[in-house]
Amino acid sequence: MHSYQFFSRIFISLGYVQCNKIYLAKTFMTLQENTESDLREDFLAGMRFVANSVTVVTTDGKAGISGATVSAFSSVSADPPMVLVCLNADSSTLDKIKENKDFCVNVLPEGAKHIAERFAGFHDAEFPNRFDGIDFTDSKGPSPVISGATAFICQLDESVVSGSHVICLGKVIETHAGNFMPLIYMDRKFKRISDVEG
Ligand SMILES: Cc1cc2nc3c(=O)[nH]c(=O)nc-3n(C[C@H](O)[C@H](O)[C@H](O)COP(=O)(O)O)c2cc1C
Fold first, then answer.
1. Which of 71, 87, 183, 188 to mutate to test the pocket of ligand 1 (most atoms within 8 A of CB)?
2. I need a surface site. Which of 2, 8, 47, 174 has the fewest CB within 10 A?
3. How far apart are the CA of 32 and the centre of ligand 1, in A?
4. Is 72 in the pocket of ligand 1 (CB under 6 A)?
5. Distance (Å, whole) CA 196 – CA 21
6. pLDDT at 33
7. What CA–CA distance (Å, rounded) separates 73 from 183?
8. Is any ligand 1 atom within 6 A of the Cβ of residue 86?
9. Are 146 and 133 in contact (CB under 8 A)?
10. What is the predicted pLDDT for the residue at 57?
11. Structure pTM?
């Protein structure tokens, strides 16, 4: 074999190995993307079967007034009383909560689907001010307390970024307990609670 033949065979072999590497890397990336999107879809499918109370988180102060419908709400601690809400990092209400350092979690009664839809932005074109025509009651804090809601009036303790959302931890400074059944959100629909027989 001539030396030029020997070297050209080596170059062809190296090119083949390189192509295979690129092909394998691309296949691995596609598999990884599929796994991530499968994980997200499975997560969302599972979350459809988790029932939550529907709340409207309001805030007011130097940054101005704002409110958003939020189902990601939980009690955190009783000593001292603390709650959390999770808001998308894009939320304009979140920006105002961070500046106002104050918010109120209004747990809606079962008849308040229209308020939940209003504060989710479904009617922003018709009602650019989401608070138009909504009744409020007085409280110790500056954030609006919706009449008839169970309200946890909070001072922002900490905000923690977690994935696409920000967890707002609030110290409860006043509670208004409403004597009603709460509005529920599950399986992408609003629902009401009923007793289990037996
Ligand atoms: C039933 C229901 C529950 C929701 N829960 C949340 C939630 O937990 N966190 C969130 O960031 N957005 C949630 N949203 C979406 C917000 O209400 C919506 O994006 C709203 O327009 C945000 O307003 P803002 O950008 O003015 O803050 C929910 C919407 C609905 C209808």
1. 71
2. 2
3. 30
4. yes
5. 60
6. 67
7. 13
8. yes
9. no
10. 98
11. 0.86
Ligand 1 atom having least distance to the Cα of 165: 11
Of 105, 130, 125, the closest CA to residue 115 belongs to 130
Cα of 114 to ligand 1 centre, how many Å?
A: 14
CATH fold label, 52-188: Pnp Oxidase; Chain A (2.30.110)
Domain boundaries, the chain: 1-47, 52-188
pLDDT digits (tens, 9 = 90+) for 81-126: 999 999 999 999 999 999 999 999 999 999 999 999 999 999 999 9
Q: Residues near 193 by Cβ (< 8 Å), separated by ≥ 6?
A: 110, 181, 182, 184
- CA 135 to ligand 1 center in whole angstroms: 21
What is the 8-class DSSP label of residue 128? S
Atom number of ligand 1 nearest to Cα 73: 8
pLDDT for 147 = 96
